Amino acid sequence: MDLNNKAALVLGGIWGIGRAAALALAGQGMKVAVAWYDRKSAMPALEKDLAATGADFCILHADLREPHEAKLLAGQTVAKLGRLDLLVNNVERGGWPVVHGPYAPAQWDLEMQTTLFAKRNIFEACLPFLKKQGGAVINISSIAARVGRSGPAASVFNAGYAAANAGVNALTADFARQGAPTVRVNELMLGFFETRHGPGTKGWDLLDEKSKKAILDHTLLGRTGLVDEVARAIIFLARDASFMTGTSLVLDGGYLLGGDKTPAMPPGVEPLDADTRFE
């Protein structure tokens, strides 16, 4: 998909990964609608930076847990930008064990409503507009779906958050079937990033140095990711992945593989040579 003069709706675009994605897409010549729910104090800086790109943009407020607000947001986006070609479905709410402690019913409900229901609500509201000229959807999820409360991630990922993100994978497959053949739907599964389960978050600052080191040691690349790296992956999925739909792209620095390196091959007790015969 040629992104120039196309229109994107970026959820959670007022801060962190969503903000980086909105600015990167605007830099590609896209018109951008940014949806936000909280962190209003970040809006002036976002407005300034989006204006500096020269792209058409608008910033809209919505509580996407409510289906009628999702429909309103989709309609407002098309009314202001003239079309809709890309949905960056970056809406979630996660509870860090180190921050929130034991689960409370309200925390579980909030994670499910935001991470799952809100994604579904906005997809269903946007799909008719996306189908008009073909487009793409990118569901943002977490490797919590695969690791849950295990190993170094146990202080970061709640079981409910892991379950919700596993549900995102199921939604991605369902959305891809609904969108085919004109709307591609893929999932970007993230590991530990600045502003998201990494530096710049309250939870990260609450971890002791041993816990932080354990996470980095478990990551093959030995660091947390940058928001710009997520933005580049989003551009790839929107612009270049023309034959990819219904699948997940993992961006985690190798956390899922673990930090253990492959050792050198041992010499063995029976090295092969030219005279070796196989029975």
Provide a quick synopsis of the model:
The chain has ten helices and seven strands.
Helix content: 40-55%
Instruction: Using the coordinates above, name the CATH class.
Output: Alpha Beta
What is the H level of CATH, i.e. the homologous superfamily?
NAD(P)-binding Rossmann-like Domain
Work out the radius of gyration.
21 Å
What structural class is derived from the secondary structure elements? alpha/beta
What features would you describe in this structure?
With 279 residues, the protein is an alpha/beta fold. It has one domain: 3-Layer(aba) Sandwich (Rossmann fold), CATH 3.40.50.720. Helix content is 45%, strand content 14%. It has a 7-stranded parallel β-sheet, sandwiched between helices. α1 packs parallel to α2. It is globular, with a radius of gyration of 21 Å. The N and C termini lie far apart (57 Å). The mean pLDDT is 92.
SSE inventory with pairings:
Elements: E1 7-11, H1 16-27, E2 31-36, H2 43-53, E3 57-61, H3 67-81, E4 86-89, H4 97-100, H5 105-133, E5 135-142, H6 144-147, H7 159-179, E6 183-190, H8 202-206, H9 209-218, H10 227-240, E7 248-251
From the structure above, extract its key features.
279 residues; alpha/beta; Rossmann fold; 7-stranded parallel β-sheet; 45% helix
